[in-house]
Design a protein that fits this description.
Blueprint lengths: L2 H11 L10 E2 L5 E7 L2 E9 L3 E8 L5 E11 L6 H12 L13 E4 L2 E10 L2 E10 L2 E12 L5
Antiparallel strand pairs: 1-2, 2-3, 3-4, 4-5, 5-9, 6-7, 7-8, 8-9
Length: about 150
């Protein structure tokens, strides 16, 4: 299995799956998800609720870190239910593709929310920002960056 295919499957099986039964609590106080298939293992660990910060990592069969993404985000709207915003976010995250493998699609509109993801780079080295708007007001943002961790000689 190619790394990109594994990352897509792992992300769809983790936070975007919207199934609280699979959330793990780690010794350091973080929460997250783990997924393994074939020769890869994926771990997504995050701290907090609003704001929140975390990291997604992929390890090979030897346990070596080969890919990583860091992120930080928060709901910035006052008076809005963060859970509703995060629910819409999960809808967007389920629409990842090989062209948009880091978070959600370029754009998504549903009911009163719109999602925007501006990404730059490739699986090797990338960065981006995603935003959610409610009636043209930004109510959420997340910064992310990462890339392959395979040493180049």
């Amino acid at each position: 299995m190619e790394l990109i295919d594994f990352i897509l499957k792992a992300k769809l099986s983790a936070y975007a799956a919207n199934d609280e039964r699979y959330i793990r609590e780690f010794d350091d106080g973080s929460k997250g998800f783990e997924y393994a298939s074939g020769t890869y293992r994926y771990v997504d660990r995050f701290y907090g609720f609003n704001p929140f910060s975390g990291t997604e990592q992929v390890f090979d069969r030897r346990g070596l870190l080969i890919w990583k993404m860091n992120y930080y985000g928060e709901v910035v709207a006052t008076g809005m239910d963060a859970r509703k915003i995060y629910s819409f976010l999960k809808d967007a995250l389920r629409l990842i593709t090989p062209e948009y493998p880091f978070r959600g699609p370029a754009n998504l509109e549903k009911e009163k929310f719109s999602y925007e993801n501006i990404q730059k780079g490739t699986l090797d080295s990338f960065h981006g920002i995603e935003s959610i708007y409610a009636i043209k007001e930004r109510v959420y943002y997340l910064f992310y960056h990462g890339g392959k961790m395979i040493e180049k000689l």
